[in-house]
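Private note to self, pasted from the team thread so I don't lose it. Backbone tokens:
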């Protein structure tokens, strides 16, 4: 596959879209990022990397962290994780409270905020610092030991986390959160504030395209069956309330974040990350979705 030619063409053709959409500013620190960035990196299990644009510029991974936190929690609890969080698309906004009341505080899936808070609660009960466990994991699976969370973004997020706090307290009232809410919310804010590049994220997600094993280190992160299950959840729940349209257009399991990043995997073949901060109405990177649609269209490769 001539990924050099495909990524170069995408980088060229995407230009009219850059700056269209809106940068998330409900976390003020995120609102400072230029909407004109665009980066894309694709890695294969044999160690090759293709990248264009701002693929080496760190950005706030935000909800993409939910994928890796969930990987850790799934590894720890196995199928018992699903007693605490569901596996269905929510059909609601990522930060919605409404379903929680009539579903007795059990979030629909681990990729909406309520579900991610439950996952962080699991990690808080197992690790002294849950966010440090996620950072360490990301360093290991990406091979970049310099990865860390951005203190300014984490603080900005913590100061504007009242809705997340409300969700966590609400779930605690149903007995669904074990640890102190403030500790869970703080760990969650730091985890979302982790900064990584497209190249880091594509490498970090490669184990999902490789049956659960990090190709260059040989570390088994998950067995093949949970790897399949996690990728299935990405497909149905990973791109906000627009997962159906995303799958229609792109045809890959993916997880996006309000920092404008999207990580996607093609099992057996590659992992890819695209970043452009301006978001469409559903919260996915507007240029990022288009770039991934072109990638699978031009290469003719998707999971379908
Ligand atoms: N930290 C963000 C929040 O809790 C994550 C949102 C996202 O990327 O979907 O609102």
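Design output:
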């Amino acid at each position: 596959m001539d990924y050099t030619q495909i990524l170069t063409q995408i980088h060229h053709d995407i230009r009219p879209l850059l700056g269209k959409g809106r940068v998330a500013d409900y976390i003020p620190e995120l609102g400072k990022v230029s909407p004109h960035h665009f980066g894309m990196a694709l890695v294969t299990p044999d160690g090759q990397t293709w990248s264009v644009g701002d693929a080496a510029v760190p950005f706030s991974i935000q909800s993409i962290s939910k994928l890796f936190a969930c990987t850790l929690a799934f590894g720890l609890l196995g199928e018992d994780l699903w007693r605490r969080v569901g596996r269905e698309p929510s059909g609601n906004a990522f930060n919605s409270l409404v379903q929680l009341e009539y579903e007795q505080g059990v979030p629909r899936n681990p990729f909406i905020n309520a579900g991610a808070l439950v996952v962080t609660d699991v990690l808080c009960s197992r690790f002294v610092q849950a966010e440090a466990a996620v950072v360490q994991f990301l360093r290991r699976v990406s091979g970049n030991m310099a990865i860390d969370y951005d203190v300014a973004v984490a603080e900005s997020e913590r100061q504007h986390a009242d809705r997340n706090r409300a969700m966590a307290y609400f779930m605690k009232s149903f007995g669904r959160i074990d640890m102190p809410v403030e500790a869970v919310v703080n760990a969650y804010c730091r985890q979302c504030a982790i900064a990584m590049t497209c190249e880091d994220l594509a490498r970090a997600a490669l184990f999902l395209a490789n049956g659960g094993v990090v190709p260059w280190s040989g570390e088994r992160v998950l067995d093949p069956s949970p790897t399949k299950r996690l990728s299935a959840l990405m497909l149905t729940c990973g791109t906000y309330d627009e997962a159906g349209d995303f799958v229609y257009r792109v045809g890959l399991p993916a997880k996006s974040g309000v920092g404008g990043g999207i990580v996607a995997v093609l099992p057996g073949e590659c992992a890819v990350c695209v970043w452009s901060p301006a978001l469409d109405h559903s919260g996915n990177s507007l240029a990022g979705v288009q770039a991934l649609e072109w990638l699978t269209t031009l290469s003719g490769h998707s999971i379908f």
